[in-house]
Design brief:
about 210 residues; alpha+beta; 6 helices; elongated
Length: about 210
């Protein structure tokens, strides 16, 4: 996501690239560092580009220069708008293509998938890939699955989120979901949003 944004900012904005690179190398990028400068016309074009690229719609209250003054602030506001798109999946039937089956080993980090994990075809998440899905309550390796979206795993410190899907006759509490996805989500700070959209629980730490 950050690479896509950098390319777009170079094209659309007067961007303090040297300062950004310096801060990145020192690992001191902060939300209040203003590395991006846009005039009114370029600001409008940037907003239109971001909405088209990430399939989001900013509210009027979002459209202040401060929200787009640094790469971190832009990522944060995109994540918030994308989260609203994820909420559209709650309680909906979803078809999932499984690419990491129950019992598979992660190709890079080596941990074992204790459940089936896949994606929704023809979608796009924040990292440019399809939206990822945890499938709960199925105890055999699967190729594909159709079920109901029960919750969202909102990764506070990462660019992408995940969905929780189960069979129609199965439901899990937030505590149960947290335990079942811990094998992978333990590396992130997360917030689990269930289908009632009011019960939230912060968990995890990096």
């Amino acid at each position: 996501m950050k690479e896509r944004l950098l390319a777009k900012l170079k094209e659309r904005c007067k961007w303090n690239e040297k300062e950004y690179i310096k801060n990145t190398e020192k690992n001191k990028i902060k939300d209040d560092e203003e590395n991006i400068i846009v005039d009114s016309l370029e600001f409008i074009r940037l907003i239109a580009d971001l909405e088209e690229s990430y399939k989001i719609k900013f509210d009027d209250e979002d459209l202040i220069f401060e929200n787009f003054s640094s790469i971190n602030r832009i990522i944060e506001i995109i994540k918030k708008r994308k989260l609203l798109n994820y909420k559209n999946y709650l309680n909906q039937k979803i078809k999932v293509k499984v690419d990491r089956k129950l019992g598979d080993k992660h190709p890079e980090y080596g941990y074992i998938y204790s459940l089936n994990y896949g994606y929704i075809p023809n979608t796009e998440s924040e990292d440019g890939e399809e939206i990822d899905v945890y499938i709960l309550g199925e105890f055999d390796p699967l190729e594909e699955f159709e079920g109901v979206c029960r919750a969202i795993i909102y990764r506070i410190d990462d660019i992408e989120n995940k969905l929780i899907v189960t069979a129609e006759d199965k439901k899990y509490s937030i505590d149960q979901i947290e335990a079942l996805v811990e094998f992978q989500e333990r590396f992130f700070k997360t917030e689990i949003i269930d289908t009632n959209d009011i019960y939230k629980k912060e968990s995890g730490h990096k």
